[in-house]
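Quick question: what would this complex look like in 3D?
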Amino acid sequence: MSLVTFGAILSHALELERDAARFYESIAGTSQDSLAAALAAASARRIERLERLRREGVSEMILEAIHGFEEDDYPLMGEAGTGERPWKALAAESEGTRRRFYAAAAAKMPIREVSRQFERLAKENAQTLGQLGAASVAT
Amino acid sequence: MSCVRLKNYFDGTWTESASPDTLPVTNPATGEVIAQVPLSTTEEVGRAVEAARLAFEDWRQTPPYARARCMFRLKNLMEARFEDLARTVVEEHGKIIDEARGEVRRGIENVEVAAGVPSLMMGYNMEDVSQGIDEECVYQPAGVFCCVAPFNFPFMVPLWFMPYAVACGNTYIVKPSEQCPMSQNMLFELLDEADFPPGVVNLINGDKVAVNALLEHPGVVGLSFVGSTPVGKALYAKAAAQGKRAQCQSGAKNCLVVMPDAELEPTVAAIMTSAFGTAGQRCLAGALVVAVGAVHDALTERIVQAAARIRVGNGLDERVQMGPLSSRRAMERVLGYIEKGEAEGAKLLLDGRGVKVEGYPRGFFVGPTIFSGVMPEMAIGREEIFGPVLGIIQAQDFDEALEIVNASPYGNAGSLFTSRGKYAREFRYWARLGNIGINIGIAAPIASFPFSGMKESFFGDLHGQGRDAIEFFTDRKVVISRWF
């Protein structure tokens, strides 16, 4: 499905972040892994930022359609179990998906502040990939 | 089906109207009745005015900083309920969720600007206007004001006025659109939570009986109105006859002039949001494209292609780009204009009739509709349709396009698309329009600027928002003093 509006892009971003937050919380809860706990907390902060961006970034004067942006290119982690693959590999996949999503979305947004926030989110994803030691997995 | 019956809010209390008469509030995407709005009586309006009048003396003496703090509290509450407010606007009006978010954001921005009242309301003075004599001008609140709100921006429009009026020390009554009263109802829940003193802000639901009662009540100082030209003109005359001040924002037929040197891709994108955003139910909507010279054919082709791609549906679906008309009556009116356009000989390039939205068989949907060969004297060329119907007119040159723009009885808004500064300058100088866009499809002034308008689009002198609102909601008192 094409993401043609500001709201659709922000909503998908929120879905991706909530998906990641659930995943990290689950890992932190079962394994007591400090990195997973930190990433869960970071996801919660990112969700807050995105919600603020959705409230404040909308401009009635510029609500023009956005083209060439497909939701299917940026899937949620879904129901992939953690048992079969190490959690860091799954996490790297999610971080990579979101990094690609924000980088692509930043280029399509007509409002600079929204682009800037997306660029920042993409940069954070790249840093997390480094922490996970799996940057190459997710690109 | 049972549904909520809305209440009035005055003197700091939610009150059931005694009126047995109600109107249904209908979700235009689903056709479902979502509430009943009471048609308040003249006596109930009188009680609201009395509450506002009694609250005025204390409120006007409340320091501007304290009044501003009420605005900060309100802003924070609005931010916290932002998504609920936006969804409510979609459910009562039908516009898409992004447009509703934009509307709520605009409303909040007005509260933010009004919170600057300690600076905005300052007067001025001069010493020694004559030997030993000083003169000062002070701004004082004037009393009880009211707003009669439209259905197309049911949440935002009262906020063009109320925050400024109240921040300046006046007390206020909102009469929401009887078609879309839900978001104002929610706003008043927040005003109640923000702890404004009883009687400072009041809500009266109703129809023209309530409007007339407000205008005829001697306790009301002034009126702000947004709606159609016939009603705006009548209310302005009536207010003047009662010795009240009024600002009446009215109808429009806005032109989007496209020069041959315009950048076509962003121009077409801007035309889409201007003509079909909010299903064309904006007083700033582009209703006519005036294609100048050789750009006509290529522009027309691109406009039709882009409009045909617009996804119509329930505005709560984030993927949707255009919602339904706000009511069955609005839909029938628009369909009538499409028939009229065909009968008048305009060429129907894209027909929005009969659009089907899966899952919403009872919605009031009309798809984007485009006519070419429109002449200014046709009904679809001169009358406000207030729907997703765009007419394309061909002009030979810039001067002819400007003549077409200025020949309209309306003067609300208009835009020019060009890459030449000379044309932009000429357009902004000569166009008799209140709100002008240069390469902008929707020339919507932000909160710190007046929402302007001219000719049959505005009756009054001071507009809503910004400095104009401060002037409208205050009296200027000049004090000349000498001490012996």
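Answer marked as accepted. The CA atoms of residues 106 and 115 of chain A lie 4 Å apart.
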